[in-house]
Amino acid sequence: MEQEPNNNGSSLNLSCHNTIVEIDRLSFLYEQKLVIDNLSFQVLERDFVGLIGANGAGKSTLLRLLVGLLKPTEGEIRLFGQSLTAFKQWERIGYVPQKNSFNPLFPATVREVVESGLYGRSKLYKRLTRGDQRKIDDAMDVMRIADLASRRIGQLSGGQQQRAFLARALVNNPELLILDEPTVGIDAETQRGFFQLIRHMHEHHHITFLMVSHDMDMMEAYLGKEPAQSCGKLKFYVKHTHAPEDCGETNLTHSLDPERPEFAEVT
Ligand SMILES: Nc1ncnc2c1ncn2[C@@H]1O[C@H](COP(=O)(O)OP(=O)(O)OP(=O)(O)O)[C@@H](O)[C@H]1O
Questions:
Q1: C-alpha to C-alpha distances, 26 to 38, 73, 256, nearest whole angstrom
Q2: Taking the mean position of all CA atoms in its chain, how far away is CA 28?
């Protein structure tokens, strides 16, 4: 499939920022069904990429390919400069999949769900250090779920569960957050607060975002009306945080510490 020309240079790294995700001539078939067709795309450090497309366009499939849950039929994916097949630094990436509905009898508490984000893919449960406890507290504070810490995850509302899964994705202080429709099931007011928060995390911290959303209003307001690139029914809206001429800037922080003064602005 022919790709539309890129009008903002996102497939050409003209910036001093590193390429965090590199998708090179990627195709994917589910059995005989072609879902991703010859996609090439790059996400640079500190980009905010909004991925839009009709139901069934392949958005979730693309995210699942990026986090190694599916294998490309053709083409290559590189994360932080490393081929996905060799990539092991999963703590650098926070991923929140689309559906996280829990059986109400599932025994884990909110705190345990957030804590499980620390183990990455090792599945090795380790003794938590004080630093680990602090990371868990910070992630729960940021998502405003500290008061739910000892509740069973399966007994929370959909929106509360979603916030717990976001806290789980944040617990390692990731450089890249991959979110698949993170505000589904969240009420309008909490949604606005959430967008404010991720916008703040994007603008004031080093976090790079790749987010699927059907919320065109939010996407257009933050990322502009024109997609940077299209491939089939997938449309990529991109906001670069800094212009290449600002590359000398070094005063950004990469911390989710909610006690930092800038977090006070996010209500
Ligand atoms: N496990 C699967 N086996 C076979 N086909 C699948 C599987 N998962 C998804 N598909 C198909 O692949 C296509 C892309 O699905 P995907 O979930 O990536 O779409 P999407 O863009 O995320 O859609 P939505 O906006 O509805 O979440 C759809 O036609 C879907 O039916």
A1: 5, 8, 33
A2: 21
pLDDT tier for residue 243 given thresholds of 50, 70 and 90? low
d(CA 79, CA 89): 9
Q: How far, in Å, from the CA of 209 to the mean position of ligand 1?
A: 22
ipTM > 0.90 for the complex: yes
Tokens 């109400």 correspond to 104
Question: Which residue has the least CA distance to atom 6 on ligand 1?
Answer: 30
Which residues lie with the beta carbon below 6 Å from any ligand 1 atom? 30, 35, 53, 55-61
Exposed / middle / buried, residue 48 (Cβ in 10 Å: 0-12, 13-18, 19+)? buried
pLDDT, tens digit (0-9, with 9 covering 90-100), for 194-208 = 788 788 888 877 789
CATH 3.40.50.300 fits 1-80+176-182+206-252, yes or no: yes
Closest CA to 178 of 54, 266, 93: 93
SS3 content of the chain, % helix, strand, coil (to 5): 30, 25, 45
Query: What is the C-alpha to C-alpha distance for residues 148 and 3, in angstroms, rounded to an integer?
Result: 46
Residue whose CA is at the smallest distance from ligand 1 atom 17: 60
The atom of ligand 1 lying closest to the CA of 181 is: 27
From 28, 49, 51, select the one nearest 38 (Cα to Cα).
28
Q: Which of 26, 29, 39, 61 to mutate to test the pocket of ligand 1 (most atoms within 8 A of CB)?
A: 61
- Domain ranges within the chain, ordered by starting residue: 1-80+176-182+206-252
Ligand 1 atom closest to the Cα of residue 58 is 18
